[in-house]
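Example 3.2
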Amino acid sequence: MFLIAVTGKSRDELLGESIWKVFPDLIGTAFERDLRDAVAKQKPATFEFFYPSWSRWFEIHAYPSATGVVLLIADITERKRAELEFAALSKHLAADLADMQRLHEISICLVRQDDSRALFEQILDASIAIMGADLGNLKMYDLLSGHLRITTHRGFDQAFVDYFASVPMQRTSCGMALYRGERIIIDDLTRSPISLDPELLELMLRVGARAMQSTPLRSRSGKLLGVLSTHFRVPHRPDDRQLRLLDLLARQAADLIERTQVEEALQQAHRRKDDFWQRWRTSCVIRSRRSAIRCMSCA
């Protein structure tokens, strides 16, 4: 009944008719190959075939004989769709598991870093790996100057680094990301919907950057910390999975950066205290010696 419906021919017209005449577009396909193989071997065969003309999947049961071949055809489109969806879901879950494992490994490396410079490099390298990016940089916010200063980078030249040493962050896309507290994505720098400083655009294009994203780093209390940016050599827009992982990394990076800043501030305070006491003790010794000298002179 199915073949009658789709071909518009009666049962009598189809019986005994060559399948290649009824469906000439099957010639040269996997269907023809598998069917001719079954007939040549004179053995029953079962195979699946996707018919593009109908956008349907079929399961074919072929029973060859000396006088021809009997075909039992079942539409398995819904089953195949379910199988494909399950395969896609399994692949997605496997990718998520692998990403979580990678993020866990990155977390261990970050927690072990006591030196701020090494920590910044680990954070940047992790973001580039997660995003599949070609270049990247980590900028920290300087409260006194109101500028974003590059602390570490991959793939940029000194002119790019120098640019951020003197330009207010409001003139840059990464500055906008930090100020707004939200990520900015530019999938093609040459067609950016955001107005970019021509000098900055020239610097990025010169090193081969064509697309970018900037993710702000803020402490849990809302303190501005910096911006994590990754760049791509071709027009590109990261997918949701990559951005979700980057957000997890950014949250952890912000916590670790803040912790490192607090620890370094405490260390500096201890050094200043030690310096103060050392100078005070030295001053006391000098005064004591001067007093002893005066006493000797009086004698």
